[in-house]
Write a structure and sequence with these properties.
This protein is of the alpha+beta class. It folds into three domains: 152 residues, PhyR, sigma-like (SL) domain (Butyryl-CoA Dehydrogenase, subunit A, domain 3), CATH 1.20.140.160; 119 residues, Nuclear Transport Factor 2, Chain: A; 163 residues, Aminopeptidase, CATH 3.40.630.30. α16 links the parallel β11 and β12.
Length: 492
């Protein structure tokens, strides 16, 4: 029974996944699957095909094996990211994210021989039995098993005790990378030493950018700008040293070396990946959790100090005049997290001089009718902000502004409600206005629902959003803000 087009289309996504893991390229995988279909059309199998999926997988694997062997005969080194067209990188990255493929594994499999890679992918990743793998490789079942076993040994590599995860310095580095991936400047500032240094090769930077940056604030701000790149990074051993590899689509681009001392990041070194770099697997990471100043994770305390998980507690207080650096960090973080929510562009905020941030902090700390409140967690880090002040252009009206809660602190146990209560209390006690309002983007449904739960009501007014006139702000009001404790219980 011949394979029909319907048979092929039904199994095509599976074939593309198999070919991608073997060849490391979405473009090459598509070519391999198309070749398999052409061979299926020309084949006159005997006996008849019982399983089109199994037959097409076998043919696709043979096409991939031929391609891998041809690459080796041509002495082709694995392609680094700069040698892959932008469209190819984007397609490969999309597959990694859509199918939850290990980035490190895609890099490490480039070091396998063609039979090892085919045997490993088929058996360990797609559960193909060894008798079929032997058929693909043109050998025996014991030989196929040996190829898969050797692949595992090469992928696992020797595990030097000095490279094991779980050390305090490794935990600090991982916490910094986790913050960098989300652009969490507040958390990065907590982990960076004040005099931290970032060195980078000029080829990895935009034209005119500094190859050396000194200072936690500048490094955190720059890192937040490049979080898309850092999201394509994985932990790996490079030439015997544990570090991070930026590998969009599984193609090495750059390495990130992080040095630490006394629970802080002291140096970050970025260099381009090279064709002669040798990669190896690192030990599995410990369970995630916040890092203390000593580098221990909550939930994984040092042996001499038993720990237990507990709900985070917050202190909500007014900002202090000297906290302009913290204000700058949380404002930049909020603009990266919610670019359309605060009426200011991130690039414009980055360009503000230190003097402007000092003036903002001093006013919000001391003005009689303009107060900004911060939620501080148990580690001393800012978890969010909210403020209240008069509206200069609308008579007899005050507004709530700068409402932001960091992603890690959102939810019913977070500080959102306490921050809003502080802002409303300040407006009631210190701002001589009859109305209290706030503006919310119409497409921010989660925020709208939260504000309505705590006593704000729709005033029936929408105004164009200043940064994008095609979007609108919905104006909410709190008619009972003059009554202490008027907001109903509940939380976001």
């Amino acid at each position: 029974m011949p394979i029909t087009l319907e048979d092929f289309e039904a199994v095509r996504p599976h074939l593309l996944s198999v070919a991608h893991r073997m060849l490391g390229s979405t473009h090459d995988a598509q070519d391999a699957v198309q070749t398999a279909w052409l061979r299926a059309g020309a084949a006159r199998p005997s006996p008849p095909i019982e399983s089109p999926s199994a037959w097409l997988t076998t043919v696709t694997a043979r096409v991939c094996l031929d391609e891998l062997r041809a690459r080796r005969r041509r002495n082709e080194a694995p392609l680094l990211a700069h040698a892959v067209p932008a469209a190819g990188l984007a397609a490969d990255e999309a597959v990694l994210r859509a199918e939850d493929v290990s980035r490190a594994l895609m890099v490490l499999m480039q070091q396998l021989t063609p039979p090892q890679r085919v045997a490993y992918v088929l058996h360990d990743l797609f559960s193909v039995p060894f008798d079929r793998i032997a058929h693909v490789l043109g050998g025996t079942v014991p030989s196929a098993k040996k190829h898969a076993s050797r692949a595992r040994q090469r992928l696992d590599g020797p595990q030097d005790a000095s490279l094991q995860a779980g050390r305090p310095d490794q935990q600090v580095a991982e916490a910094f990378m986790a913050a960098a991936r989300t652009g969490d400047t507040r958390r990065m500032l907590q982990l960076l030493a004040p005099d931290c240094v970032r060195d980078a090769e000029a080829a990895l930077l935009p034209p005119g950018a500094r190859t050396t940056v000194v200072g936690a604030l500048d490094i955190a701000t720059e890192t937040a700008h490049h979080r898309d790149r850092i999201q394509a990074a994985c932990r790996i051993v490079v030439n015997g040293e544990p570090m991070y590899l930026i590998a969009p689509g599984g193609h090495p681009l750059a390495t990130i070396g992080i040095s630490t001392a006394e629970g802080k990041v002291t140096r970050i070194l970025l260099r381009s990946a090279r064709a002669d770099d040798h990669f190896a697997r690192t030990a599995p990471s410990p369970a995630p959790g916040p890092v203390t100043a000593q580098g221990h994770r909550a939930g994984n305390p040092p042996p001499t100090a038993p720990g237990r998980m507990r709900t985070m507690k917050y202190v909500v207080r007014r900002i202090r005049a000297e906290e302009w650096r913290e204000l700058r960090a949380v404002r930049l973080e909020s603009l990266l997290d919610s670019p359309g929510a605060f009426g200011v562009r991130h690039a414009d905020a980055v360009a503000l001089p230190d003097r402007a941030w000092r003036e903002q902090a001093e006013r919000a700390a001391a003005a009689a009718d303009d107060g900004l409140f911060v939620a501080v967690d148990e580690t001393g880090s800012w978890a969010g902000t909210a403020g209240a002040a008069p509206l200069a252009d609308i008579p007899d009206t005050a507004h709530v502004y700068a409402v932001y809660v960091a992603p890690a602190h959102r939810g019913p146990d977070g500080p959102a409600r306490a921050l809003m209560e502080a802002a409303v209390d300040f407006a009631r006690e210190h701002i001589d206005r009859a109305r209290l309002t706030l503006g919310v983007r119409e497409d921010n449904h989660r925020a709208l629902a939260f504000y309505r739960r705590i006593g704000f009501h729709d005033l029936g007014t929408v105004v164009p959003y200043p940064l994008d006139p095609s979007k609108f702000l919905r104006i909410l009001g709190c008619p009972d803000f003059r009554a202490a404790g008027a907001a109903p219980p509940g939380g976001p």
